[in-house]
Specification:
Blueprint lengths: L13 E7 L5 E8 L8 H6 L4 H13 L5 E4 L6 H9 L3 E4 L4 H8 L11 H11 L2 H4 L6 H21 L2
Parallel strand pairs: 3-4
Antiparallel strand pairs: 1-2
Length: 164
């Protein structure tokens, strides 16, 4: 929250909601206003995955075989509704809940616990910030800005897959 009183809490800016694979390649990007909660855009981010044909094929395979599609989320996506939406779309959500860091540090010594890899998404966000046009938003229309974000995602995919 910003501002000294309740009327000044509206943050200015844009927030990127990025869904990546385990290598950090962006699969879905949604932009919202900075003052909206992450919970409101989670389902939209899951629905806007670029690779639709492959996702449908994986859903068919997942229903017929034991293919598990994991989804790692941070604390902003903690509400039960998001977990339900992820399960409904065929994902196994791994959400780090409050206080889990200390428990995870103690139990990780004794068992092989699947931990949330937040650094992969943070690295992808860093790749987005290397584009000066995205670092500070000058476009008034959100469609134009979203087009630039998608173009940056195309360049990131090209650099990661083609160039190595």
């Amino acid at each position: 929250m910003t501002g000294p009183n309740p009327t000044d809490r509206g943050k200015l800016g844009t927030k990127h909601h990025v869904l990546t694979d385990k290598k950090g390649i962006p699969l879905s990007v949604v932009i919202t206003a900075a003052n909206t909660h992450d919970m409101k855009s989670a389902a939209k981010t899951l629905d806007n995955i670029v690779i639709i044909k492959r996702r449908r094929r994986e859903r068919i395979q997942a229903s017929s075989s034991k293919t598990i599609q994991n989804l790692c989320l941070d604390k902003g996506y903690d509400p039960q509704e998001i977990e339900y939406e992820a399960i409904k779309r065929g994902y196994v959500p791994h959400i780090r809940h409050r206080g889990e860091e200390s428990l995870l540090a103690m139990t990780e010594k004794y068992n092989n616990h699947h931990h949330v890899r937040r650094w992969v998404v943070e690295r992808t966000n860093s790749w987005h910030n290397r584009f000066r046009k995205l670092l500070v938003r000058y476009e008034k229309k959100s469609d134009n800005y979203l087009g630039l974000v998608h173009f940056a995602c195309c360049i990131i995919v090209y650099r990661r897959i083609i160039l190595g």
